Amino acid sequence: MSIRALINEDLIDLHLHGSNQLNVIEQMASMLERQGRIESKSIFTECVLEREAQVTTGFGNGIAIPHGKDETVKDTSISIGKLSNSVDWKAMDDRDVSFVIMLAIPESEAGTTHLQILSQLSGKLMDEDFRDSLMKANEKEDVLNLLSDCITEKNIG
């Protein structure tokens, strides 16, 4: 599975205006719904919020990786939101979040693809140079290129 199968420019918003965590998640779920990657924005949003209630996906350093695994997800997908104003995400480092990478995973791939993508992302996000490049990206193509280097076909599905 290539990165281009997971994400495209229409799943990236580098000027997302979110007032809080719920608003950001809803907007990003809307991107997925418009692309036909999820059947229901409301069900997917609820799924992501249930996951957040268990433990924060605020990774640290201003980044969150919320994810939802549900049967309403049609295709494994990634959506990206770079926030115009940071929001409280109850992150592990208590910093507000300004960059969100949302994963949408079909229930059937919950234990495989989900963990592979999450592992690759979180490992790469530990690298300060990668993190800075991602957060400073002003073009959608730059984000796609960075993710292509991070998430490789041979390590997914």
Automatic annotation (TrEMBL):
InterPro entries: PTrfase/Anion_transptr, PTS_EIIA_type-2_dom, PTS_IIA_fruc, PTS_SugarTrans_NitroReg. Residues 5-150 form the PTS EIIA type-2 domain. Keywords: Phosphoprotein, Phosphotransferase system, Sugar transport, Transferase, Transport. Pfam families: PTS_EIIA_2 (PF00359). This is PTS mannose transporter subunit IIAB. It comes from Thalassobacillus devorans.
